[in-house]
C-alpha cells in the first residue's frame, strides 16, 4: 500500500486554500517528498506528518513553484531535526537551481551541519527496497528537464492460509519461511514446498505521479493499469490553447489519459485560481468518472484497484 498526502495543490501561485506543489508518499517506514513549493515546511507541520524520516526528496522539475520551499525546509532540518543526511534527486537543470539556492543562499560561506546530497537522476530505476521500487520517467513540460515517478510494489505470491491449515503448519516462523520461498521441514519429518501454500503471482500496487506536463501521448505506457495516477489539471478545455502555449494540461486531457491508459483512479492537482474546483471536477468526470480533485491535506491510501481518501480538508 502507498499513501499520498497532498501538501500543496495550487498552480504557479498559492491561493487562500491551496499551497504550492508538494506531496508526501509513504510506504511502510519509507517517506518521499515530491516537490517542495514555497511554504512546504509549514504544510508538513499542519498535516501532522512532521519531519521524521523525511530524507528522500524527489523533484519533478526546476520551476520555482516546485523548489522554492527547499531553502526553508533544509535549513530547518539542519538546525532542529535529528537528520544526518538528506538526498535531493532530480534532473540536471533542477539540481543546478537547487544548488544555488542552498549553497549560495542558505548555507553561503558555511558548511551544512548535515550532509545534503544532490543526486542527478535519469529515467529508470532510482530506488529499491525489499518490496517496492521507485522509477523515474521523462515528462514534457515547457522546456524543463521534467520527470515523473512510478512507485511500484514488487510482484508477490499470496499465502494461502487455508492450505497451510490443511497441511497442519502452525503460525509462526515456518509460514514466514514459506512466504519467502524457502522449503521447511516440520517436526514430523514432512517437507513442505512453497508451491504447496502459495497462490499464483500477483502484481503489486502501481502509483504514478506526474507534476507539470504539456503532453500525454508519452505517458500512456507508464501509466497503464496504474491503481492511481496523480497529474496536473491547470486549465479547462475552454482555454486549451493557453494550456498548449504554457505547456500544461486541461482537466479533460488528464481524464482522457486515464481512459487510454486504463487507470483505476485519477487524482488531479496543480489547480489554477482562475477556476472553481467543481468545474474542474465536472470536466474530468465527464470523461473519466473515477476522478477526484485533490485539496491540501487530503490523504489517499492506494492498494490494488483501490484509492481511498482517509482524510480530507473541511
Topology:
Blueprint: E1 2-8, E2 22-27, E3 30-34, H1 40-47, E4 56-58, H2 64-67, H3 70-80, E5 85-90, H4 92-106, E6 115-120, E7 124-128, E8 132-141, E9 144-153, H5 161-166, H6 173-179, E10 184-185, E11 191-192, E12 206-209, H7 220-223, E13 228-232, H8 240-246, H9 251-261, E14 266-269, H10 277-285, E15 291-293, E16 299-303, E17 306-311
Parallel strand pairs: 3-4, 4-5, 5-6, 12-13, 13-14, 14-15
Antiparallel strand pairs: 1-2, 1-16, 2-3, 7-8, 8-9, 9-12, 10-11, 16-17
Helix pairs in contact: 3-4, 9-10
| CATH level-four homologous superfamily name of the largest domain | Ribonuclease Z/Hydroxyacylglutathione hydrolase-like
CATH architecture field of the largest domain: 4-Layer Sandwich
Structural domains: how many: 2
Helix and strand content put the structural class at alpha/beta
Proportion of residues in extended strands: 25-35%
CATH topology of the largest domain: Metallo-beta-lactamase, Chain A
Radius of gyration: 22 Å
Uncertain parts: none
- The level 1 CATH classification of the largest domain is Alpha Beta
The amount of helix comes to: 25-40%
Order of helices and strands: EEEHEHHEHEEEEHHEEEHEHHEHEEE
Shape: globular
Spatial sequence of strands, sheet with the most strands:
6-5-4-3-2-1-16-17
The main β sheet shows up as: 8 strands, mixed
Assembly type of the chains comes to: single chain
Q: How many helix segments? A: 10
Mean pLDDT: 93
How many beta strands in the DSSP annotation?
A: 17
Distance between the termini: 25 Å
